[in-house]
Write a structure and sequence with these properties.
The complex is a heterodimer. Chain A is mainly beta. Chain A has one helix and 17 strands. In chain A, the strands form six sheets. Chain A has a four-stranded antiparallel sheet, with no helix packed on it. In chain A, strand 3 and strand 4 form a beta hairpin. By secondary structure, chain B is of the alpha+beta class. In chain B, the strands form five sheets. In chain B, strands 2, 4, 5, 8, 10 and 11 form a six-stranded mixed sheet that branches. In chain B, strands 1-3-9-6-7 form a five-stranded antiparallel sheet, covered by helices on one side. Chain B has a five-stranded mixed sheet with strand order 13-22-21-16-17, with no helix packed on it. The chains are: A mainly beta, B alpha+beta. At the A-B interface, helix 1, strand 4, strand 5, strand 6 and strand 7 of A face strand 1, strand 2, strand 3, strand 4 and strand 5 of B.
Chain lengths: ~220, ~300
């Protein structure tokens, strides 16, 4: 009986094995056996490698970004009546390592005399790198949430009521909005923007600029 | 009069529609994505031609912003310095963009038009410089009666200047595998640290072998760039999800296994190895084996009983 168990274990560990194996240093290829495919070299994968001269090498492939709209009109703002707006950002890259889309704003929503503060969410804990629930009518501010679309993965928690404030201009490139999940295929995510103002907020026109930048991963 | 009335109404409707602000998509292409330059002396010139194609339906004006790369996060995203340090400031001050033999800090591209703008810079010292050029569309200047946000989109190009005077750093790998795995997916946490002052580019594979040193599988690693003083998490080519660990599908295998990481060491251009051991005990296989053993035991018990009765 004991020998039977040992024999069974040995049989299970023996399965799917190959025999000869060798390693090479010059080309960085590891050969397993005669029939097996050699492990590919670790050289960077590039689509179109051009050498302009001996010193500078350019790596180019298809890389596009598209925002569904170039402005967001929030309409007239009324106290404790949250406004939600939606925009879609799409990006396509043939870069083999994928990319991420970063977002930021030049400043908070500002008028000539006052500003709508960036949201800190219901429990006051959300930051530009940490999303948190925001559904109370008496929580004021300006923020956004990410909704995953085609081949995308939102960088922060994105449950139904989760929002976070935009990072400022100095954080350009540092705050990812979403990651592409499939190289060479269109990646798409929606951004839902939310404003809720208090009764004390002056009735003015508030404006800012928000940015979406696709950055290749290295 | 009767004929002209509907015409004038149509014209008024058309004029009203045209005068409205219409939110339009802005869309463009950019190349290159990566520029690698080997610097050999101080005050060396760098030239990078950027090609921008407007694939949207309205004119776009693209502006350029250089950003110093400070380090790299675990998930492969970059950490940019809020303000460039003195060395980078000197470099950025020399950056000029030229279009049509004229210096320009931005470029306007019509729908379906393709334009090339040349970046030129002087590398102040024969050192390593890592930065990105952000090409960002300038927001349109509409007049609004309501609160609003203008939307700009952009693409980044990485420029990596490696000096011949600086030796490549060495890579410090750390591979962690849970000792006991009870399902058929073995998670492998592989972190690669660069403690040097130069960017490291490396690649390799993890070879899984059984008790008898026979190969049971391999995991190919993406070529990885690790910026100075950064630690990267290695990911497989099919897992682009940030922070997702490498994994090995062990199928129905069980028993002790060994994972050997073979990595190219950039400093010496040799191969380095690190190993981790783990035990596979898939619950499903164990249940099946137990049932099988019980069945064997039961049958043998019955057979022995019958033989004794004979």
């Amino acid at each position: 009986m004991k020998y039977g168990i040992i024999l069974l274990l040995l049989l299970l560990t023996w399965q799917n094995t190959s025999f000869a194996s060798s390693m090479s240093n010059d080309t960085f290829q590891i050969t397993q056996d005669e029939n097996a495919e050699p492990i590919k070299t670790a050289a960077p994968k590039t689509q179109d490698k051009k050498e302009s001269d001996r010193k500078t090498v350019f790596y180019s492939s298809l890389f596009t970004i598209d925002s569904s709209i170039d402005f967001i009109d929030y309409g007239k703002l009324y106290p404790t009546e949250p406004v939600l707006r939606n925009l879609t950002v799409s990006a396509l890259s043939e870069w083999p390592l994928g990319f991420y889309v970063s977002t930021f704003q030049n400043h908070s929503l500002e008028s000539s005399t006052s500003a709508i503060a960036d949201t800190s969410c219901d429990n006051g804990s959300c930051t530009s790198t940490l999303a948190s629930s925001w559904n109370r009518i008496l929580t004021y501010g300006f923020g956004y949430q990410c909704k995953e679309g085609k081949n995308s993965f939102c960088a922060y928690r994105n449950e139904a009521d989760d929002f976070l404030p935009f990072a400022d201009f100095s954080a350009m490139g540092n705050i990812p909005l979403f990651y592409s999940l499939a190289p060479k295929q269109l990646s798409q995510a929606s951004t839902i923007l939310k404003i809720n103002i208090s009764k004390s907020q002056s009735k003015e026109i508030y404006q800012n600029n928000i940015y979406f930048v696709a950055i290749p991963r290295l | 009069m009767k004929r002209t009335l509907p015409l004038s109404i149509s014209f008024l409707i058309w004029a009203a529609l045209v005068s409205q602000k219409q939110a339009v998509a802005s869309s463009f292409q950019l190349s290159p994505q990566l520029v690698e330059h080997t610097s050999t002396s101080d005050q060396e010139e760098l030239f990078v031609p950027f090609t921008i194609k407007n694939i949207g339906n309205k004119d776009i004006t693209v502006e350029f912003f250089p950003r110093q790369i400070q380090s790299q996060k675990k998930d492969g995203t970059l950490l940019y310095a809020q303000t460039p340090d003195d060395q980078y400031k000197k470099l950025f001050d020399t950056i000029q963009f030229t279009y049509d033999d004229k210096q320009s800090s931005s470029i306007t591209v019509a729908p379906q038009e393709k334009k090339e703008i040349l970046l030129s810079a002087t590398i102040p010292q024969n050192k390593n410089y890592y930065f990105s050029i952000f090409s960002i569309t300038k927001a349109n200047n509409y007049s609004f009666e309501n609160s609003h946000s203008l939307v700009s989109s952009g693409l980044a190009t990485h420029v990596l200047i490696q000096s011949t005077s600086q030796l490549p750093g060495s890579v410090a790998p750390a591979m962690r595998i849970p000792f006991l795995t009870t399902n058929n997916s073995v998670p492998i946490e592989l972190t690669l640290a660069n403690k040097g002052n130069s960017l490291i580019k490396t690649g390799g594979a993890i070879r899984i072998t059984n008790l008898f040193d026979r190969q049971a599988g391999t995991i190919q690693l993406d070529p990885i760039s690790i910026f100075p003083h950064s630690t990267r998490l290695a990911q497989s080519p099919t897992q682009k999800e940030p922070n997702a660990l490498l994994s090995w599908n062990s199928g129905t295998r069980m028993g002790p296994y060994k994972a050997t990481l073979v990595l190219r060491e950039p400093k010496t251009n040799s191969l380095i190895q690190t190993t981790a051991y783990f035990l596979l005990l898939p619950i499903k296989v164990i249940i099946l084996l137990t049932l099988l053993l019980f069945l064997l035991f039961f049958i043998s018990f019955r057979v022995i009983k019958k033989l004794r009765n004979l």
